Amino acid sequence: MRKLMSVLIVVLILGCSAAPVLAKDLSIIEEVLKKVDEQSYFPDTDVTALMSMIIEDPEEGLEKIVVRYFRRDDGERFLLLIEEPQTQKGQGYLLEGDNLWFYDPSSRKFMHTSLKESFQGTDARNADFSQLTYSSSYKVVDYDEGKLGNFPVYIVDLEAVDDRVPYPYAKLWITKEGNLVLRTQEFSLNKRLMRSGLFPSYARVGNGVLPTQMIFIDELVEGKKTQITLTEISTAKLPDNVFTRAFLERASR
Amino acid sequence: MLSVVLKISARNVWRQKKRSFLLAGAIAFSMFVITIVNGLTGGVVDNIRVNFSHALGGHVFISGSEYRDQGIVYLIADEQALLDSLAHYETSIESITRRSQAMPSLIFGSRQAMQLVYGVDFSEEDKLLSSLVVTQGSLERVTDEQTIILPRTVAERLGVEAGETVLMRLDTITGQRNVGEVIVAALIEDQERYGISAAYVNRSYLNSLLGLRPEEYQALNLFLTNMDDADEVGRGFREALGVPQPATLADIKEMDEEEAVRELFGMARVEEIEPWEGIKYQVTTINQIMEPVEAAVNVLRTIGLAIFIILLVITAVGITNTFRMILIERTKEIGTMRAFGMQQGMVRNIFLMEALLLSGGGALVGLVLYGVVSLVLGQISWDTMPAMQFFLDQGRITFDATAREVVLNTCLILAMSLLAANFPAKAAAKLSPVKAMSSNL
Question: Which of A16, A77, A196, B328 gives A243 a disulfide partner, CB atoms 3.0 to 4.6 angstroms apart?
C-alpha cells in the first residue's frame, strides 16, 4: 500500500511539473508571428532607402557596399542597385513576384537567382530585404519568456514546414511589446547554429516597421559578420517603371 | 642489277666512314628527337587519360537531374532505360562506381574555400585510391564515416593539416543549409590547372548532408574493359536515355565563347531553363573531358614536327653538299665506269642508293637510341616530384610512339634524303665519260 502511495505521489509530482509545458499555448506565439510578418509588409506604400553594408571578413578585411534599395510589397517587388564599390557598381537585383534576377552590367545579362542565396557574398541573404514569412514558413515548436537587455521577449523555437526556406530551424527573440524581432538564430538541417542576426533599431514605415540596423554573424567562420544600416528612408511613391528590367539596365549605365 | 647498285653504294658509304658517320648521325639525331617527342606526348596523353578516369571514377559518366518546385535536383534513379543500357553493355563494362557530389564551402577557423567534393564508396573505388598521390597523412582510415581526402593546395589555403577537423557548409539537394564536420585523413596532389581539383568523402556521409538516403547517388560512372570504346558506349547510352549527342571542338569553332562552352559542356543559361518531367540524363565520356588536354598536347606535337622538319632541312642541305663533293671526288671513277658501259640510270641509282643507305641507317640508329633512352628513363621513379604525378604511370615516365608516327617519320627522312641527293645524282649521271676521264680531279 505504501509502495502504491509512493508511486502515486511521484506521478503526481511529475505531472504537476510537466503541466506548464503541456499547458503552453502555442497559438499565442503563432499570433505574434503573424503580427511580426504583417508589420514587415507595406502594401500601401513604396519604400526607398540607402543601405550601407560593412562586411568584416578575417581574411579579406573590411569591405563596404552601398546599395540603393527600392521596395514595393504590393506585387512583391524590390530592386537593389549597387552604388559602391566601383568594381560592382551597376550590379543589381530585381524581385518580380517569385522571380529574382541578378543583373551584371559587364555582361549585360540577367541571371535567375534565389531569395535563399547570400547577397554578394555577405552574411545577408536576398530574402532579408523582403517581407518576413515566419508564420507561413515555420511552425512554432516551443517558446519561452525572458528578457533581452531591458526588453521582455518571447524566445521562440521554430521548425520549417517545408524545404522552401534555407534554414530548417530558427530561434527568435520577439519583444512582447511591439512584436519586434530583436535577435535571430538560424540552424542547419542537423541543428547546428549557422547564423545569428541582431536587429537593434527599427523605423516606422506606414503601419509597419523596418529594421534600420541589422547585424548578421556567420557562426561557422570565426570573426565574419555583416552590418547593414538603412538611411535616407523615404515612403514617397515610386514610378511603376522602377521595378522593371529596363530600369535596372538603364540605371546601371 | 639492284644487288650491284646496292653493293657499290654500300662500298662507297663504307669508304668514307667519318663523313658517312656524321651524315647518318645527323639523321639519327633528327629521328631520335621527333620519336622521343611523339613517344613522350603519346605516353603523357595515355597517363593523363588513365589518371583522369581514376580521379573522376570512370570512362563514361552518367548524371541526372529532376526539375522540382524548389529548383533543379541532381539525382539518378534506377530507371528501366538505364538498367537496360547497363545490361546491353555488360560485356564492355569492367566496373561501376556511384558518386554524389557537392560544392561546399570548407571552413577552418576564419578561413574558407569553395571546393568540389565527391562522395565515393571507397570499397568500390580501389582505382581512385591507387591513383592518389598522398603528400601528408594516409589513406588507411578513409573508410571511416567522417573523413575527407583534401587537395594539398586547398589545405594550404585553409591552413589545415592531416588529422585536423574542417567544417563543410553546403546546401541540401532542395536548397536548405547544412553543415558537416570531417577529419582530414590525407592531403593529396591535385591538378587544379587541368580542371581536376576534387576532395573525397564517404558517400553515405555526404548523402546525409545533402538530404539523400545512404544508398542514393547522383552520378553513375562506368569503367570500361577497353577505354577506346568510351565514345561508342557513350553514344549508346545517350541514344537509350534520350540525351542529344554533344558538339565537338571542331563543331564549335564558329561559335562565340559562351555558346561554345554551353555546347561543349551541356550547360544552359539559367534564364533559358524550361521545366521538364522525370529525370533528365547527361552522358559524358573521358574523351570529351580530354579534348582540351589533347588539343594542348597536339600543340606540343606540332612544335616537335616543326623542329623535326627544320632539322631535316638542315640535314638535307648537308646531304646535297656532301654528294656534290662526292661527285667532284669521283668524277674520274664515274668516267671509268661509264667507259666500261655503265648506263646513266645506274650511276644516278648508285648515288640515290647511297643517300637511302645513309638515311635508313641513320633512322634506324635514331630509333634504337629512342628505345634505349625510353627504357632507361622509364626505369626511373619520379616519386619525389608530386606535381608531375598526373603525367606519369605510377611515378614513371612512359613512352608511346605509334607505329604510324614512326613509319611516317621514316618515310619523311627517306624522301628528304632522296630529294637532297637527287640533284648531285643527276649531275653525276650526265657526266660525259671522255670529259670525266680526262678530268684532273
Answer: A77
